[in-house]
Amino acid sequence: MTTINMATVSEAEPSTRANPFPGADTYSWTRAFSEALALATGLPPLVTDVIASYVIRPKRYLTKARTETIHRLRPGVIVKDEQTGLHILSVTTHGFAGTPTEYNERVRSAFDSPARLGSSPVRVLPRLTTGSGPNGTALPFVTTAEPVEPTVLNSLLGIMDRALTEADRKRGYDLAEDMTVFGQTNRTMHVPFLRTITENHQGVPVTREVVDLVAIKGSNRSRARLKLYGLTARNIPFGVPTAMLDLPEPKPGQPPLPEYIADPAVWVPAFADTLRDAFACPKHRLHGTAQAAAEVATVQMQIIVGTDNPAEFHNTVFDPNRADHRRPQLDYPLAEKSTSDMRAVLREAKASGRITERVRAWLAGEGSEPDAQSGSVTDARDRRDRALLGMAFPKEPEHDREVARVLGEPERHYDSREENVTLRLRMLSAAIAEGYRTRWNPRLLDGTLYSNFIATRGSLADQPDWRTALDHAETDETQLSDFLVTRGLHWLAEYGMVEADRGSADGQRGPGRRSGVSARNALLRKPVQTIALMREIARANDASALPRQVDETGAPVDETVADRIWFSVTFPKTGRAKKKVDDRPGASDSAPPQQPEPTPEQVLLDVQLRLVTSLSTELPQAFLSALAVAREAIAAGAAAGKPALADPPSYSVEVMEQALTRLKRDLGAMQASLADMKTETEVTIDSATEQFAEGDR
Q: pLDDT tens across 151-199, in order?
């Protein structure tokens, strides 16, 4: 990514253009705008004061009748979007107004879901909720259900920034650098986000509140603008450095200025005046910053300040972003698009009264299970999986049509096509992955349901729990196929045994990368071994262990690991059966053919697979066996009241140390040889262990 050289900009000749930075507006007009906005929307002064501080020339948005003493917003300043029911304020603001948000639909998968086992608290997004007034009335701003610790918020904003950087790489050019030349051509849309932060002031716990205008549309553009101003999203909740602001020195007896200022009513007008002065003065410390940000000194901005459905505001406010990214210029990754669709389906189900807010948050991966039942990890996941199955492919026709409307499917169910089934399957698979340790490719389920599944009112609701399903599968292959589609393939994907192909001719190369249909068909050919493998995965999942391999009788094999290579060998891909034309005997020779000698390429592939298994599975298993014996020796010594190696045979410690030294040297040589084996055909691997063994012989 190109870095903007502020030093080069600041050393340039003073600009002859007019100063684009307007500076701060008078306090009286900013205050009048805040009061008029509060009167029009019902938003509290805490929110309207912050919005007003960013608005340039607020006077032009106000009007006052001769018979009134208060100002009101002019007609047309707030416009209702008929499609979303959101009320939009359109104003010109300072270019540093607005920030990206960690709740952006395109980066949700960068965070841990509360439904995921072992999720890290500093990677879990706090649950969003609609703001409220003193009397509990729902108001059009968002906040978190509980205050957030500073370390957690700092971590979340860092994760967001890295994820947006990764997403922005697909753009092909540096957005901030582009803005220095062309400015910002498209408006961004924002919503007030009341951040509540728990802090400790001199031993007293307090909750600090700060309003952030987070982007619903245009997170990357907002981040790029902040970059030009030398700011980041962290500066809004944690403060702008006082060194960036031209503030008067405190008078005698007044406290010194803090190192950071987070109150927008203080830092926004001060920063606006500082930038105006810096642009005009080449020697000002922020002259380079002002020169770089000149094309975005002011921007057109939309701010959501109302809604037709206040109670559901936190659920519907991100809909404009999701709608823009269904056929966007800068597309979502597939997993993000799929989970975004499921969240929209769940929001609609909540709005129609089918589920509660707590259930919606649980299924969306934003909260824990309501009224969680006792049981294993597998049981808990299974309850969520089955609930999501019923949401993606509902049983009730009216519920199914509701899902269809959200996803933009044909109005009549019988007009639904294969692509609609595929998109729902991807939506389902991506949402289920939120509750697992691994997020897999949502294409995993492609083709596992027939193409007219929606048209014929197929449903995945009311699936039996995993234990019952596997019991039934012992006598009914249809039940086994249903289980593999609804849960089994996901279980395999979590442990890396299968990986969906990428939809290209090269997509299925390599062991394990195959379509879900291929994996399902191979599993159905060995039902006893398949059912045993599923039960072994459930056992391993509950024990926080790796699943063992199972033999053809269904018995687990101790001291083994069911990995991708084992799965590919045990359940090989099956070719598509050709349709039988007629029953007459074939004219060709039906004798079994003699197998040819393997080609050098086939031999190489076989050895490559064995090398991978040897180094990735067998070698670590050998070490784990030695480690277990060492720990057993430590425990035995403790029971005897002695060190584990107290009074050993005179030569034994030396022998072990020499063996470990040789192995350490050999492992280094092996690792270096792997790099050589990628580019060279003649590679020699010397081994101290091999030389020692040959000497013994």
A: 999 999 999 999 998 888 777 788 888 898 889 988 999 999 999 999 9
Which DSSP symbol is given to 263?
Answer: -
Quick one: pLDDT band at residue 599, thresholds 50, 70, 90?
Answer: low
Compute φ and ψ for 514, nearest 5 degrees.
-160, 165
C-alpha closest to that of 304 among 109, 561, 86: 86
Q: What is the rounded CA–CA span in Å between residue 269 and residue 245?
A: 9
CA–CA gap between residue 561 and residue 549 (Å, rounded): 6
Q: Rounded to whole angstroms, how far apart are CA atoms 688 and 665?
A: 7
Cα Rg of the chain, angstroms: 32
The pLDDT tens digits of the residues spanning 611-664 come to 888 888 888 888 888 998 899 889 988 888 888 888 776 667 888 888 899 999
Whether the CB-CB separation of 556 and 536 falls below 8 Å is answered with yes
| Kind of pairing between the strands at 204-217 and 240-241 | unpaired
Calculate the average pLDDT of the chain.
86
Percentage of residues of the chain with pLDDT beyond 70: 89
Q: Which residues pair with 631 in a beta bridge?
A: none
Distance CA 113, CA 648 (A): 51
Burial class (CB in 10 A: 0-12, 13-18, 19+), 491: buried
Task: Kindly provide the residue ranges of all beta strands, DSSP E only, lying in 45-187, ordered along the sequence.
Answer: 62-63, 72-73, 78-80, 86-94, 128-132, 138-144
Lowest mean pLDDT among 394-398, 507-511, 532-536, 622-626: 507-511
Report if pTM > 0.85: no
**Residue 158: exposed, middle, or buried by beta-carbon count in 10 A (0-12, 13-18, 19+)?**
middle
pLDDT over threshold 70, residue 328: no
Considering only CA atoms, which of 435, 431, 440, 462 is closest in space to residue 372?
435
Sequence-distant (6+) residues with CB within 8 A of 217 are: 188, 189, 320, 321, 324
CA angle 228, 234, 240 (to 5 degrees): 70
Task: Quote the CA–CA distance of 496 and 134 in Å, as a whole number.
Answer: 51
What pLDDT, on the 0 to 100 scale, is given for residue 354? 93
Closest by CA position to 190, among listed 40, 42, 302, 320? 302
Q: Are 124 and 113 in contact (CB under 8 A)?
A: yes
Distance CA 177, CA 434 (A): 35
In whole angstroms, what separates CA 62 from the centre of its chain? Answer: 42
Q: Which two tokens stand for residue 593?
A: 């053919």
Amino acid letter, 483? F
> In a 3-state reduction of DSSP, which class is residue 143?
strand
Please tell me the distance from the alpha carbon of residue 669 to that of residue 688, in angstroms, as a whole number.
10
Residue 279 and residue 20 in contact, taking contact as beta carbons nearer than 8 Å: yes
- Neighbouring residues of 467: CB distance < 8 A, sequence distance ≥ 6: none
Predicted pLDDT of residue 322: 57
Is residue 319 within 8 A of residue 345, CB to CB? The reply is no
Helices (H), 641-681: 652-677
CB of 224 closer than 8 Å to CB of 179 = yes
Q: Are 571 and 518 in contact (CB under 8 A)?
A: no
Q: Other C-beta atoms within 10 Å of 379: how many?
A: 15
Q: Taking CA 168 as the corner, what is the angle to CA 304 and CA 102, rounded to the nearest 5 degrees? A: 45
CA distance 611 to 24: 68
